[in-house]
């Protein structure tokens, strides 16, 4: 019997946890016993969450502060539940602000309990000290990017690259793409996907910039259509800030249907304009060339320039070591600069082909040709439970 306590605090972690549980059940079958906190995806894999995961899915200082006492109470309650359950391992999935606080309390009470964290912190980009701090309470890390293990190992943890979940995403079918064009009335017109972010602050900053960029492109391409696969909390703001685009509203449809329309929108687009983040990998998975843009307030931009240790913000570029995806960050995030880069992709098949090749390379490096990431993660978890723990530093 293998007993595990898993903690996910937001939808992306819930999906990772569900794939991990599916892999664990493939390997362990009925010998697996799970407890913890998760959302609907993990519930579908048999986890009965101790409280609604939505209590932890808060972002931003203004949202967190009023709920901080309740969140800290949940940290104490969850740590006590882990200690009482006596699992073979505690697995925290992303959401380090909550999960690592729980792990620290558990480590203090049960130092022998194996602790595993799924999703390495981006110490290769900024704040390298986070890995050393995490090593105080975590034994093993499951990494999504192939270059991350050395950073975690240098801090005193074992780490294994288990593949990125993007490689398990379904590719949009021709029927799905045709259905999208029919529903939105695009006909055979060229299409741009506009992806201004999933949070209100991101959309507020990028929406007007993306709208003006689209307008510039449309002056010389009047039949160009724009589609936006918006997240539920920002649909209305997206419509307000980018009024000339067709917006896919996921609020009244099941998640599987929303994901279908999202991948269809990505795959149908001849080019995409997106904010920096995991979305660049999602676009690459659908074979869509792109331009990446990101705007921040002057204070945040100044801080980022001092802390960031890499010369590109685009994951496709980082994974491949190439700089195939153009990006316009901070003061360069202007329609007059972004529009020509998008136009080159629309007008130059060689430019688009170079990006598609980089995207395919990124998918291979992220594990597209290997076992599913959830199964690889499951193997890594079971091996970590059996492996002797590294000697603690200090």
Secondary structure layout:
Blueprint lengths: L1 E7 L2 H18 L3 E6 L2 H5 L16 H25 L3 E5 L2 H14 L4 E5 L10 H6 L5 E4 L5 H6 L3 E4 L12 H11 L6 E5 L4 H21 L4 E5 L5 H7 L4 E3 L6 H14 L2 E5 L3 H7 L4 E5 L3 H10 L7 H6 L6 E3 L5 H13 L1 H17 L7 H14 L8
Parallel strand pairs: 1-2, 1-3, 3-4, 4-5, 5-6, 7-8, 7-10, 8-9, 10-11, 11-12
What do these coordinates show?
This protein is α/β, with parallel strands linked by helices and 394 residues long. It has two domains: 2-163 and 370-386, Glycogen Phosphorylase B (Rossmann fold, 3-Layer(aba) Sandwich); 168-365, Glycogen Phosphorylase B (Rossmann fold). The protein has 16 helices and twelve strands. The chain has helices at 11-28, 40-44, 61-85, 96-109, 129-134, 149-154, 174-184, 200-220, 235-241, 255-268, 279-285, 298-307, 315-320, 335-347, 349-365, 373-386; strands at 2-8, 32-37, 89-93, 114-118, 140-143, 158-161, 191-195, 225-229, 246-248, 271-275, 290-294, 327-329. The strands form two sheets. A six-stranded parallel beta sheet has the order 2-1-3-4-5-6, sandwiched between helices. It has a six-stranded parallel beta sheet with strand order 9-8-7-10-11-12, sandwiched between helices. Helix 6 links the parallel strand 5 (140-143) and strand 6 (158-161). Helix 8 crosses helix 14 (335-347). The longest helix is centred in the first third of the chain and has 25 residues, at 61-85. The chain starts with a strand and ends in an 8-residue tail after the last helix. The relative contact order is 0.12. The mean pLDDT is 92.
């Amino acid at each position: 019997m293998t007993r595990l306590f898993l903690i996910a605090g937001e939808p992306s972690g819930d999906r990772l946890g569900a794939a991990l549980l599916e892999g664990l059940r493939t390997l362990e079958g009925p010998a697996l016993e799970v407890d913890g906190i998760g959302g609907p995806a993990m519930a579908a894999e048999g986890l009965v969450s101790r409280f609604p995961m939505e209590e932890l899915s808060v972002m931003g200082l203004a949202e967190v502060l009023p709920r901080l006492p309740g969140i800290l109470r949940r940290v104490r309650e969850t740590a006590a539940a882990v200690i009482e359950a006596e699992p073979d391992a505690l697995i925290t999935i992303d959401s380090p602000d909550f999960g690592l606080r729980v792990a620290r309390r558990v480590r203090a009470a049960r130092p022998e309990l194996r602790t595993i964290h799924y999703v390495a912190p981006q110490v290769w980009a900024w704040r390298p000290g986070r890995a050393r701090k995490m090593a105080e309470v975590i034994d093993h890390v499951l990494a999504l990017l192939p270059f991350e293990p050395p950073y975690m190992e240098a801090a005193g943890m074992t780490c294994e690259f288990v593949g990125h979940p993007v490689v398990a995403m379904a590719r949009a079918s021709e029927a799905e793409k045709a259905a999208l064009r029919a529903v939105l009335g695009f006909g055979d017109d060229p299409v741009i996907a506009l992806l201004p972010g999933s949070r209100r602050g991101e959309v507020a900053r990028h929406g007007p910039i993306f709208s003006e960029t689209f307008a510039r492109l449309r002056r010389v391409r009047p039949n160009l259509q724009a589609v936006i696969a918006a997240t539920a909390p920002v649909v209305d703001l997206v419509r307000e800030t980018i009024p000339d685009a067709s917006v896919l509203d996921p609020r009244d449809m099941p998640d599987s249907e929303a994901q279908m329309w999202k991948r269809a929108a990505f795959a149908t687009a001849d080019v995409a304009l997106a904010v920096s983040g995991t979305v660049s990998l999602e676009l690459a998975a659908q074979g869509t060339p792109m331009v990446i843009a990101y705007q921040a307030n002057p204070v945040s931009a100044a801080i980022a320039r001092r802390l960031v240790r890499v010369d590109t913000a685009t994951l496709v570029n980082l994974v491949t070591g190439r700089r195939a995806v153009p990006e316009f960050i901070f003061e360069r995030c202007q329609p007059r600069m972004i529009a020509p880069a998008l136009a080159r992709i629309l007008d130059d098949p060689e430019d688009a082909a170079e990006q598609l090749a980089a995207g395919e390379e990124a998918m291979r490096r992220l594990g597209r040709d290997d076992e599913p990431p959830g199964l690889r993660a499951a193997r890594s978890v079971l091996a970590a439970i059996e492996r002797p723990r590294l000697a603690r530093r200090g």
